[in-house]
C-alpha cells in the first residue's frame, strides 16, 4: 500500500511540474554577429578606430597604413568588401604587415571604393594608385590582384625609404 501511495505521489509531482512550466512560444531570435571595427572587411584583423590612432600605430610599429573608404549601403562597397574579406592573401598581408582603418563615408562614392596608403609623414602615396585615371585610389572586386600588388609596394616603399 505504501508503495502505491508513493507511486501516485510521484505521478502527481511529475504532472504538476510539467503543468507549471511555461510553454516555449517565444519567437526564435536570429543570431547576430557582433559589430566590430572591421564592419565585415576582415573580422579577424585588428582595425584602428581613428585616423590619429592609425597614424600613431603606423609610426610606432613601423608598418604602412591602409585606409579603406566605403559607404555601408553602397552595392559597390558591398561587393568590394566581400572580395576583400574572402581574399586570403590580402587578409594575411593586412594582418601581418599593415595598420588598417576603414572609414564609413556619408556620401555616395559613385562606383568608387578608394583605398589609399598614407606614409608616416601623413602624405598619401601618389605613386600607389588603382587602375582608373579618373579615380586614382579606387578599386573594384576584379582588382584584388592589383590591390595586393599595391599593398606589397607600400610595404616595400616603407622599408626602403625609412
UniProtKB/TrEMBL annotation:
<dbReference type="InterPro" id="IPR051099">
    <property type="entry name" value="AGR/TXD"/>
</dbReference>
<dbReference type="InterPro" id="IPR036249">
    <property type="entry name" value="Thioredoxin-like_sf"/>
</dbReference>
<feature type="signal peptide">
    <location>
        <begin position="1"/>
        <end position="20"/>
    </location>
</feature>
<dbReference type="Pfam" id="PF13899">
    <property type="entry name" value="Thioredoxin_7"/>
</dbReference>
<dbReference type="GO" id="GO:0005783">
    <property type="term" value="C:endoplasmic reticulum"/>
</dbReference>
<keyword id="KW-0964">Secreted</keyword>
<dbReference type="GO" id="GO:0005576">
    <property type="term" value="C:extracellular region"/>
</dbReference>
<comment type="similarity">
    <text>Belongs to the AGR family.</text>
</comment>
<protein>
    <submittedName>
        <fullName>Anterior gradient 2</fullName>
    </submittedName>
</protein>
<keyword id="KW-0256">Endoplasmic reticulum</keyword>
<keyword id="KW-0732">Signal</keyword>
